[in-house]
Amino acid sequence: MSQFFRIHPETPQVRLVRQAVGILNAGGVIAYPTDSAYALGCHIGDKQALQKIRQVRRLDADHHFSLVCRDLSDLGVYAKVSNTAYRMLKAATPGAYTFVLPATREVPRRLVDRRRKTIGLRVPDNEICRALLSELGEPIMSSTLILPDESYPMTDPLDIRDELEHQVDLVIDGGFCGMETTTVVDLEGDVPLVLREGMGAIEPFVS
């Protein structure tokens, strides 16, 4: 049965944040709030935890996970960022965006798009995320919490606990989240390409 932590969305309790990170470091899968929707997350290097998320969401091997990062310094470690892309990232982060960028060798191969050698990264505007990432010291491997045969993410942490209490190791109650996913922007080329319109405004990336 999963643990259930109520973490304050504006002033996260340090004790609970440390316990949550301990669960991640021990190979656990957590359900946690972001600035767009609830997500499933695990340690970046844990292959078994990644497979557990695939099983919960019934994802195939071609599904692309994102790295949820603390700030732009993390993006620079895990992605190759041009000067033009950096300026766009600086203006749009933190925020409800996922950016597709060329991956560096720091990214585990199983997370990289095998054809394009890219990775999705995001910097959420959410205090619980910030606290988790600061304590963890590295990105969280993440996927939006959309259950099989559903079109929208789960929004209520109590419903998440009821549905997934035997499939994940921790549910973090950070309040209700929205049903909208992130806006996905491809910054691999010279011109940004909006791949999916979501919560983040697309105007900064269209001419």
From TrEMBL:
It comes from the Bacteria. Residues 14-200 form the YrdC-like domain. Pfam families: Sua5_yciO_yrdC. InterPro entries: DHBP_synth_RibB-like_a/b_dom (IPR017945), Sua5-like_dom (IPR006070), SUA5_domain (IPR052532). Gene3D superfamilies: DHBP synthase. GO terms for molecular function: double-stranded RNA binding. Transmembrane segments: none annotated. This is Threonylcarbamoyl-AMP synthase.
